[in-house]
Amino acid sequence: QAKMQFIMLQNGSLIWPVIGFSACLLPTIWFVSRGIEEGIEKLNVVLMPLLFMIFIGLLIYAMTLESMPKALHFLFNFEIQKIDFKVVMDALGQMFFSLSLGVGTIITYSAFTPKKENLLKSSLFIVLPGILISLIAGVMIFTFVFEYHADVSQGPGLVFISLPLTFAKMGMSGQIVSLFFFIALVFAGITSTVSLIEPLALYLINRFNFSRLKASLWIGVVVYVLGVLVILSMNERYAKFLSF
User: Which residues cross the membrane (predicted)?
Assistant: First the structure.
């Protein structure tokens, strides 16, 4: 069933993916154009606590389901014989992805850090909540997946195929849970895209004397064009023209 759903997405309308992409990119560019203190900082102060509260609420709901022990066993059952080079590299890749290492984000934000700031303390405030939210999300998601016998996959397949099918099986409660889950996902996505665009914006400002608004708009246009091309490449009608 999940495979059929994916085929439908490949052959379906591109309007909603483009609308969704636009709805995420526009506020991202707006927050970046506002700067660190007036835009990004205020965004994170509001969205991150909301994200955490939504995840806590979904976790509490997941705790009422019978499949939570199965999800806990799936996530935390330690089998040392399965740890190989690929597992280690996957873990490192997840770490680099989660903390946005190697893309200039941390360096960019650190440029605004006061000289007297305790970097170790700040690092712990970044890493520990990130680990906690990841664990909460994992337990909550796989509880839903096991409870409603969805495909246990990873990446986009889990979030955009298995979970929606799971929510659909939950009836009215599934619609409510899916609403809050994807709101949380949007919050997490916007905070991430802002942090990814900020290094390039700061580079244009410092290197070419762009105003922050001009830099944000230029980046927004380029990202939008590239993003739409990526969306088109996922549809079979356009994939043959955009695949290299």
Answer: 14-33, 45-64, 91-112, 124-146, 180-205, 217-234
Burial 62-91 (b: 16+ CB within 10 A, else e): beebebbeebeebeeeeeeeeeeeeeeeee
Instruction: Judge residue 119's burial from the number of C-beta atoms within 10 Å of its C-beta, 0-12 exposed, 13-18 middle, 19 or more buried.
Output: exposed
Interval 172-203: pLDDT, tens:
878 888 888 888 778 778 878 888 888 889 88
pLDDT given for residue 153 in this prediction: 64
Helices within the chain (DSSP H only): 2-11, 15-34, 42-62, 68-76, 85-98, 105-110, 119-147, 156-157, 163-169, 172-208, 212-233, 236-242
How far apart are the C-alpha atoms of 77 and 204, rounded to whole Å? 47
Give the pLDDT confidence of 28-76 residue by residue, as tens digits.
999 888 887 777 777 777 777 887 888 888 889 889 889 899 999 988 8
